[in-house]
Amino acid sequence: MTSDEHVVLVDGEGNPVGTAPKSTVHGDDTPLHLAFSSYVFDAAGNLLLTTRAAHKLTWPGVLTNSCCGHPLPGEPLPAAVTRRLSHELGLTVESVDLLLPGFAYRATMANGTVEHELCPVYRALAAGPANFNPEEVGSVRWMPWKEFADQVLSGELEISPWAREQVPQLVALGPDPLRWPVGDPAKLPPAARL
């Protein structure tokens, strides 16, 4: 990330209302902004989990889904997913599919830092191994989807607040993550329809 990387600010209906430097948007009064979450699978349906780097501003050291990030102004979300998977995990992907076009969340850390995102969720299929960037990621591991989802739903596995909200919605798409139906891009927030 460059120091002048900007995120897209959105209103409550998902319309773009401007941009702001990424370095300034995460605090105790974080404005709603456009982001994405991605779940990377291998050909056997195993999920790539990551632990966030210990020096991250939000949820440092927390286990989470494969990769999250922010599209640059004017950048289509699938391109942002591909860019961040390459940067954070050294991954090349075979495909990037929209799953949950309207997902949004707001979560507050113990220190008062707020994450407030309109955050469509994507599935990506890995074309090779992960080689994570320690500036972004503390560790990685693969886990069968059902095992992961069962542990999240039972509360046995502690994960990021956004993934905890996303997993039940993904489970509702069916038991096989490689066969989940692709979401309707017309249901993306207006700021993400590029």
In short:
The chain contains four helices and twelve strands. The protein is an alpha+beta fold and 194 residues long.
What's the shape? globular
Identify the strand order in the major beta sheet: 7-4-11-8
**What gap, in angstroms, lies between the N and C termini?**
22 Å
CATH topology: Nucleoside Triphosphate Pyrophosphohydrolase
* Count of the separate structural domains: 1
The profile of the biggest β sheet is: 4 strands, mixed
As residue ranges, the low-confidence spans are none
Count of alpha and pi helical runs: 4
CATH class: Alpha Beta
Please provide the count of β strands.
12
Oligomer: single chain
CATH superfamily: Nucleoside Triphosphate Pyrophosphohydrolase
Order of helices and strands: EEHEEEEEHEEEEEHH
CATH architecture: Alpha-Beta Complex
In terms of DSSP E residues, the strand content is: 25-35%
Task: Produce the secondary structure layout.
Layout: E1 6-10, E2 16-21, H1 22-25, E3 33-34, E4 36-41, E5 46-52, E6 63-64, E7 67-69, H2 77-89, E8 93-100, E9 104-108, E10 114-118, E11 121-126, E12 137-144, H3 145-154, H4 161-171
Parallel strand pairs: 3-10, 4-11
Antiparallel strand pairs: 1-2, 4-7, 5-6, 5-12, 8-11, 9-10
